[in-house]
Backbone:
């Protein structure tokens, strides 16, 4: 068989087909809500974030200090053993400079790009990264390997969520800028 | 292990388009019927049917497998839908292979369908819920982020430039000019890729495959039946699958270890010791241009960090030493996720039969590979085919 000799299905629609009302469509906007339980490990993680602390979980078998914390070790497939506080500083493993939002819409001309990053948290096992945002750093200045520190919401504004950390900022830039924002645990 | 030999004996595919008039069910019918006709059988000859399709969220249809069953020819037959994210399309024939290799079926129809255009305003929005609902979704991530993060880490680890990576997009979109199903085939330059809109640096618009509607199907048969149906059966000699942890931030993003694990499983089954020499042609999954390079390395088709250089040297061109994505891949033919993986399997099937038309690679290849990848950058599926 050769594809070239076959009449292939699949009819490509053009915008004009819709403008001329040649195509009928139906629409549905789902109005669904979900209540996701945080679980045992992440529940504690969030409670600690509300206190301005980052907590990990340790497996005595593989000796990993794991972030996000988990009640079972997926490598050893056994219960993890203890909680351990880690730092609110880390190293940028990788980053992006995002000009699109979650739904693929573009950020406006006056909206700065978002800088999502994987941040390896100090005190956790090397390579244990979490997704978070970088700020107080220009798109041209952000680098892999950069040391960063969490910038927390004010204690009264925290809700026990990953967003209790507003973002991470470069540690060196913090010294040169206003030191007032320094949030110490 | 007492498994029977299984061959691909027929194939069908639709055009891949941005938005198809046909429903998913109609696209599935078109591909399925073409596959049956291509090997001269009817639905009565089919023992079992498997169907691959990606998230229900694209269609807003729950039980998508059941909805599509009629189009896939499953009426009153043993039937199962499978879904392993972007890895689905290459898992499809693996799922069918299980049925035939085990002796449960002599003929299995394998269908892969995707209709992404239903999801408004853009199917990218449907991906929000693949991220952890508590620790990641509140940060409003989009799928492009994690690819941008992975691409940046890959570039940094091996000192690869965006221009090195853009060559993959240029090559595949060019190759797709010869594919009758192609959606975004065109002759472009590296500069065109670099100058296209920056979505999430380092990812530009032309680094990414499009969202697409389309379907594909293959017919699998046991050895006895295959030899009766065709004098050019293409044998499934190896299959492999592997999934990594969903804690993707913990992984080495510069190397797809799970693809290597899947590949080694398939190579062991096929008796392949030196993949870079024994594989003549490959269709790794290329939803993003850097992924083709990433996957070549994970598939052990070249040393780590070397894929970009080989691409620049023309090694992976259709007339190169190791043609990669001669179909035009997801970047050129289009990316209706599950159907893309099966399109790649069909391309290897046609190439090994010498029936790929203008896309035919020189040198009469006898061993080829298709691979797909998905979920939270954690799923690897690999299939090795021989003539």
Residues:
């Amino acid at each position: 068989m050769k594809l070239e000799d076959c009449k292939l299905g699949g009819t490509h629609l053009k915008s004009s087909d819709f403008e001329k009302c040649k195509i009928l469509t139906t629409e549905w906007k789902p109005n669904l809500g979900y209540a996701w339980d945080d679980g045992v490990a992440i529940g504690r993680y969030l409670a600690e974030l509300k206190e301005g602390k980052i907590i990990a979980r340790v497996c005595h078998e593989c000796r990993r200090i794991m972030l996000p914390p988990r009640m079972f070790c997926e490598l050893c497939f056994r219960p993890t053993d203890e909680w351990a506080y880690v730092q609110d500083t880390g190293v940028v493993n990788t980053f992006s400079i995002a000009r699109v939002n979650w739904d693929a819409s573009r950020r406006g001309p006056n909206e700065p790009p978002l800088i999502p990053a994987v941040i390896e948290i100090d005190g956790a096992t090397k390579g244990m990264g979490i997704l978070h945002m970088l700020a107080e750093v220009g798109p041209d200045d952000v680098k892999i390997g950069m040391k960063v520190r969490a910038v927390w919401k004010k204690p009264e504004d925290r809700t026990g969520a990953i967003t209790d950390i507003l973002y991470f900022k470069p540690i060196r830039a913090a010294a040169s800028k206003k030191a007032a924002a320094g949030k110490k645990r | 292990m007492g498994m029977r030999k299984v061959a691909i004996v027929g194939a069908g595919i639709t055009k891949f388009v941005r938005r198809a008039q046909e429903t998913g069910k109609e696209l599935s019918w078109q591909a399925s019927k073409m596959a049956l006709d291509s090997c001269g059988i009817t639905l009565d000859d089919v023992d079992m049917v498997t169907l691959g399709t990606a998230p229900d969220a694209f269609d807003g249809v729950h039980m998508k497998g059941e909805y599509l069953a009629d189009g896939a020819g499953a009426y009153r037959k043993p039937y199962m839908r499978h879904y392993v994210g972007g890895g689905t399309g290459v898992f499809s024939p693996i799922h069918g292979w299980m049925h035939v290799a085990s002796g449960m079926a002599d003929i299995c129809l394998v269908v892969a369908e995707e209709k992404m255009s239903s999801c408004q305003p853009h199917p990218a929005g449907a991906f929000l819920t693949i991220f952890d609902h508590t620790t990641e979704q509140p940060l409003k991530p989009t799928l492009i982020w994690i690819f941008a993060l992975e691409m940046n880490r890959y570039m940094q680890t091996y000192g690869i430039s965006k221009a090195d990576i853009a060559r993959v997009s240029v090559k595949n979109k060019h190759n797709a000019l010869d594919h009758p199903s192609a959606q975004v085939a065109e002759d472009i330059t590296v500069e065109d890729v670099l100058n296209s809109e920056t979505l999430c640096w380092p990812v530009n618009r032309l680094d990414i495959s499009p969202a697409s509607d389309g379907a594909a199907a293959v017919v699998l048969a046991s050895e006895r039946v295959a030899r009766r149906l065709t004098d050019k059966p293409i044998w499934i000699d190896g299959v492999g699958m592997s999934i990594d942890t969903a804690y993707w931030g913990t992984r080495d993003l510069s190397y797809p270890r799970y693809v290597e694990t899947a590949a080694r499983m398939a190579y062991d089954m096929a008796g392949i010791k030196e993949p870079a020499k024994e594989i003549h042609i490959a269709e790794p999954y290329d939803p993003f241009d850097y992924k083709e390079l990433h996957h070549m390395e994970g598939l052990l088709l070249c040393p780590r960090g070397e894929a970009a250089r080989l691409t620049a040297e023309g090694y992976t061109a259709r007339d190169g030493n190791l043609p990669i994505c001669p179909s035009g891949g997801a970047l050129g033919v289009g990316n209706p996720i599950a159907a893309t993986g099966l399109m790649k399997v069909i391309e290897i099937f046609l190439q090994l039969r010498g029936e790929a038309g203008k896309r035919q690679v020189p040198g009469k290849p006898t061993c080829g590979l298709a691979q797909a990848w998905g979920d939270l950058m954690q799923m690897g599926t690999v299939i090795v085919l021989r003539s």
About this structure: Chain A touches chain B through 55 residues (CB under 8 Å). Residues 39-182 of chain A form one domain. Chain A has a mean pLDDT of 90. Chain A has one domain: 39-182.
